Input
Amino acid sequence: MEPGMNNLSPRSKYSNRPKVPPPVFPKSFITKNRNNRKTTKASVNQITSNINHSTRVLQGLESLQTKDLFCDATLVVDDCRFKVHQAVLAASSKYFWELLAKSKSQPPTPLNIVKDEHTEITLEGIQADVMKILIRFMYTGSVCSEEVGVRLLRKVFQSGRELEIVGMVRSCMDFLRGNVDMDNCITVYLIAKEGGLDELKSAAEVFIMENFPRVMISDGFLELRVEDLLALVNSENLKLKCRIALHSAAQKWLDHDSQRTEYAQEVKGQVLQTPMRIVLRDVTQYSDSANNIESPCNHDNLNDKSPGKVQGESENNISNSWVTRTYPTQPMILAFGGEDKQGLPSERVYQLHPLSGCVEPFHNMPIRRLDLALTPLDGQVFIAGGQYSSDSRASDSIGTVHCFDPQTESWRQMHPMLKRRALFTLDTIEKRIYAVGGKNAQGSLASVECFKPSLNEWAYTSPLGIPTFGHASTVQDGKLYITGGVVIGKHFTNTLQCYDPALDIWSYRCPMNTKRALHSMCAVGDKLYVLGGNTRNAKGKRVDCEIVECYNFETDQWVNVKPMPRAVCLAGAAVVGHCIYVIGGYNGHHALRHGDIQCYDTTKDHWTRIGQLPEPLMRLSVCTLSQPIIGNTGRSSANQRQLSDGISESSSDGVLA
Output
């Protein structure tokens, strides 16, 4: 039986239930007669009480105070006069007890107590509305929740402690603990900390840690003192997977009060030591503007937004890029969804640090999906389409679009695509998102849609020449390129098509040397690289494609480079610097899903395996983002050995190394 459950079933003789002692009843007592020394039994004196008597007395006193009857004292607070009973003051407050007792023996000059038939007490440092609540509590023993807000109750609590009102602390704590919400959790936390109320502080801190992404953007967050801010940021219970919002909130906290400038370096240092996950920006943007980023040590005035500003950055985005403006960044890869080792669609998201080979969980998607597509845009990640099951052949494909916003660490649903799509591509060109081809219950698609996030609407553009799914795409110099795919009759194609959004036309370029589908394509520098996927051998059998091809824009030709050590299809691929990372996928030769992270160095024409996902995945989608460099981000010695040794053939079964 779990603790806290009401179990009415019979218990065994070995039950650990604590034994309750039997009730103790009053017994007759013996009295002695002093005259004759004989003992006799006397009857028990019966004492009766009315449990409602004390309540009625308090109610009567409150009624007398309200009607100004028999009041023998006046409290003067902020030019307001409250007539009360000295007996109630003395019985409710140790402060008033000592004050009134002292006034009987000597004149109390400091507090302006006039000794006559009526005593007048002037109190400094207390607001009239606060005193009204304190008087009501002394007469009723309760706090009216309808009239008292948490912010006012903070002053009530402080004044109640100064006046040493009996029971006030407990009543305030009970009231606050039952009324913690998003608007007042910071205030409750501060009240508990100032009053030394550990129980209330723990309750408020738990609420803050659970809802920290929303708390950071509240007005109460700006009221924190520097020691409170750092205590919350460094808490082990902090639940924050995407840390860019924390950096923005810290900058907003500094800008709220000019006197906080002296804490700037301390706050920045403490915030940067927390494991910040990502800054959703384009990697090439920072590689091109690295020389325009200044050191935070050169910032003399944090209120001046100009130092450390990336050229071309708008003033509206200043607070959102505090860390990225003042610290160099390193890239990171996010892997979304896919099919797990049990053949089920996944909602999990993993973040991969290429330099360290570290993989850790990230924010889960709102729904499970595989064969999806995604693209980053303006600091957000847009995820679209896919399907719910692995063996439906796109009959349950979806058109749902979700957007992840790191500022609030939340997902929101956007307008769905005009067509349900799976096994399609999604790319960003100049603030617009393009969904190309794919497959649904009606079959292969040739349609192309364009999404405008500012309007939250989709519109058709020029379609493909032939319905295609399972192709790959990338963007280079403002144009969209797609390769391969499955066309009519389940044939693989080797075409390279180019879409010019300015002209809204498709054109053909030099085809690949190999027909393939379910592969990956990336742009590195001024070249395109096509990796993995499926092709057909001389007998027409579908096999893994180990060939890696490189397209040169100047010559309009494809050349083969070093093949993949482990060919996979339905994998994710992303670019970091001059390296291409192929993540997960399916190997038909071994009939296994893989969690390998394979890295191809385009400058050295060399393959290595830098690590693995926590689980084998295929039919996933990935993208590259960037994050600030914090601490030692170099590869560990173990990872260095892995890189130098190249691909480990012993890990071909896909099991974690």
Observations:
- Residues 432 and 453 are 7 Å apart (CA to CA).
- Residues 244-326 form one domain.
- The longest helix spans residues 53-66.
